## 1
Amino acid sequence: MQVKIPDNINTIVHIGAGEGSELPTYLESAAARIVLVEPNPKLAEYLRDQVDNNDRVIVLESAVGGASAGKTLCVYSLTHTSSVYPLGELKSLYPGLKLLRSYDVEQEKFSQLLKKLDLRGSNNFLVVQAPGVEADVLEGLTHSNYLESFSQVYLQETRHGLYQCPEVDVVSKLLQLGYNLDSSSNESTATLIHAHLDSGRLALSRLTESLDVLSKKYEKECAAHIKTKKNLDGYKERSEQKLKNLEGQLARKESELVNMKEQLSEQAQKNQKALNSLISDHKEQLLKIEDISGSKLNAVQLNLSDAIDKQAEAEVKNQNLLQNLDEVNDRLDKALQSKKVLENTLQPLGKKVLQLSSLEKQVDEHKKRAEDVEKELKSFKQAAEKDLQNEKDAHKALQDECCQLRESLSETKKSLEDNKAWFASRKKQAEQLKLEVEELRAQLLRSEQLASGFEAIKQQLEQLGSKVTSHVDKSLENSNKKLESSMGLNQYLATGAMPLSVQERPLAPGAALFLAEKIEANDYDLIVSLGAGSTTTLVAKSILNKMHRLVGGEGLALPSGGGKASSEVVAPSQRDLPVRVVVFEHDKSCVEKIRTQASSNQLSSLVKVFHSPLVDYKHSGSDFLHYDCEAELKRMADYLDGRPSRLLIIVNGPPSMVGPKSFYPALPKVLNHFSQHALDVVVSSITRQDQRDVIDEWCSQLQKRSLTFKRYDKLDFSISTLEINKQ
């Protein structure tokens, strides 16, 4: 990530510092403090070694994440994909992605990290380069007091779905937080975003947020007030209805009590009258019985007295006495019968006395029930009066609360009016800013109109340049042929060996020198040429010269001049591969010619030429004709499996007459077999725009594969180079 540090920065905070590739830029800046946060223990130790004894730099071995982040850091074969979040669609994007190892790491929220760093002022610089944590970082900025602490933000937004992490629209969130977007660039798995803090936008955002909060609070209080008023009205209606019901119940109870008292009084009077009548009747009957009994007893006494008086006479008149005694006995029997009748007459009187006692008890019970009902009615009345008083107290409390709510509502309205006035002034400022923006847009439109004029001029210049380039190419081709013929003649006169060349595909002298210097400067394990040409001669001789010098010679000496053969020059450590240079060519006559010349110059141990007819090849929905070389490329990849190697890939064909973008399949085929190795890909002829477009498409494909690369175009030599996976 390329970052530019302003001069007024106080502190730089880098989340996911990795190997510290940006550290030299940070150290060159005027920042007083540089904080590098990296959870990988090995990378954190590497960073400490780099900044040893530098008081400006602090290395924190920690992971930044939210509640859903794991406490395990997973390190994959593509280093920039390491994360504390589990993989999502990234596994399908890179099927060959492998987990190298995992670390248990300490994790903290971004807000906790900011509190620990205790940032001062607003001129601080934030860089976030940790896949999946951008949502956690923005959440920490939103809910902390450090929102204004970072004036510049460089943030890597991971493409949605690649990790099982919280997703957020980074651009919208930054704009919401008061940042203006400066630039953004897309990579295969992420988008790099640069933004700076706009204090005006931040103030407007906070003002809008405060107004929204106040509006919601006002609406909530209004709703609460309406609800309270509605509840109060309902409670008042229920209280009044309940009071009416209680008063009705009290009236009914009082009416029932009066009726009950009247009924009891009437019943008591009736019972008293009945009792008095019954007692009077019984008394009369008792008096009659007593009169009858008294008269009968007196008669008996008289009879007994006569009997006693006549006892003397009884003795005298025994017969008469016995007769009289029988009469007396009869009378006594009658008296006894009368006594029984009297007793039978007195029995109903006793029952009626018992009934009278029972009636008296019932009267007492009715009186007691009446007293209990009266007490219950009294207690019910007291409870009703107490409930009524409680209802009145609650009603008064609700009225007091309603008054307080009205006062609070009035204060809120006043505060809202003040905020509305302040917002109106800010809105006016925003409108002024909008006018300025419109003016800038008008200026931009005029600039675009000028640019369109420049574009037309540019097209005319390109057409003219194309014509000039075509003329120069033809002149250059003639010059190359003359130069190559001259060099071949000099070689033949000096050594007696015929030159190894293919005149149909000449090589510019500058391009030839570039290739020779590259072979001289690098130790390539293998050189692959897709298409034969003058490069075949150059590459073979350059390797032979280098090897001859390594074993003690002064340079290349062909056999006729007494030099060593290529099989004698190749070092033993280099014999693990069949050959050093592999050439694929579809023209059979050209293949035979190169094989013959390589054999006559004793270069067969270095160069192997395959006859590879052009076959159909499909890639990204497009059809091509390209060399049939897949099997041989796989065999060479198997030789190199398990050890890091460096390869030189030279693209000479197929020729353009085969079709547009004829050499495009070269890089996809090479990457399918050698993507784990360091590659130098050289295209020996890029004189046309469509050829340069192929190089652009290759760069896009490398970005999608997340492979590191650098591109070098030497237009003066008509040559382009891609350095891939350079160590």
## 2
Amino acid sequence: MFLALQLTRAPDGATEAALCMLNHEDLPEGEVLVRVSHSTLNYKDALAITGKSPVVRSFPMVPGIDFAGTVERSTDARFAPGDAVLLNGWGLGETRWGGLAGYATARADWLVPLPAGMTAQQAMSIGTAGYTAMLCAMALESHGVLPDASPVLVTGANGGVGSIAIALLARRGYTVTASTGRPEEADHLHALGASAIMDRTVLGALGKPLQKEDWAAAVDCVGSHTLANVLASTRYGGVVAARGLAQGMDLPATVAPFNRGGASGTIGTYEAARAAPDGYTLLLVFDSHAVNASLYDIKYDTFKSFDYVSLIGTMPMALATSKRSGFDSLPALLAAAKAAPGKINYGSSGVGGSNHLNPVAFERQAGIQFTHVPYRGGGPMLTALLGGEVDMVIASLPVVMGYGKSGQANLVAIGSKAPVSQMLNLPTIDSTVPGYVAQSWGGMMVPAGVPKPVFQHIRTALQKTLADPAIAGKMEKDGSNVVNNSPAGFEEQVRRESKRWAEIIKAANIKVE
């Protein structure tokens, strides 16, 4: 028999902890039986023992997220009785019995030999906290943050990970600032290598985006508002190794989109295409993405350069006419266009844009001819429509809906397959010109080669966001239809549209000057 600290759940749901004697038969199955000589008491163990956080997934449980000791029995050839071993992590103390006991069982894959020259006591003095701190330091270095790029911030500085991270980074030559809620420990933190001490309340309060860039990098052991403030005050291109959730599991941060405009979005798309495929660069594209290869000499491949995440939403386009034109119905417009080819003109925001190409497609399907009047942007195009300078435009519904409701323009028809909830009485173009659909869309992509687990995490987060009633309701109110389709479905749609628009652009001899 051996002594163990065992956690059980009382009838009222409370966690009860007690020292007790166990038999080897009580241990979970495992390939290796280890006689434990040392373990650590981690913050997660404290949460488990006190029951103040739902850390333990099943009861009874032996806490202890790590241990060191000697193999007594093994069915795996990699370990033999007498071998000194240690184990960190792998769900110990949460889903698997841990190290706060005289014996423990484990899978052989989880164990590592005790490093030569290190005792079990030394290994556990460093413990999982030291192991985690080293991973954080290695992450900074692997992402190009070297000592000359200091200062580096360490939050939760008096905790196990924080204090060891300070010592490791200072020894490596970094200038370290320690954030702590225990100012009386300042001398200890300085002794570890911290060059400066700051009060944690500076970072722990509600933060603001885009703060002063103070840090080249950071090791955050706190999470929540603290992590959000650390991210906001880290220099552009800096690195934050986040490994703690002591303050909370939320991340109340603001993500600032970088709108790299120009050449119908091809400049920003190229920047995303050549970004590292690490999941930190997300690209929001619109329907022009399916067109640009036919109009511009782009430096990326529409398909090979990206992994498609999902179509996010579609937005119908509407055909609006000026009051001066006199056309208040689609049949009247079509009759006039057939009677006098080229007399009716339409405005666009520029050559190759959606409100240029969609009228071209409309001409082809309806067997009519308009005259194109390009403007430098959507604002001048709308001004021309309201002033009667052009007869019509095909633009996204939210852009022209207000003018139709106020009587400043005529809303003639909608480009969706079915009427939309915002304007149920507005007929579809398809009802008069069968098969014609005009809609804009938006979707998300990432640089090609993002690891599958990271890609799936991004996709799951996007799905969750689009399923939020508040988000979906806002999009629908603005005239969008939430789509949230599969990566394959999104890519296939873009391939179909790319082929269609390439044929139309070639037939109409459309060229961007």
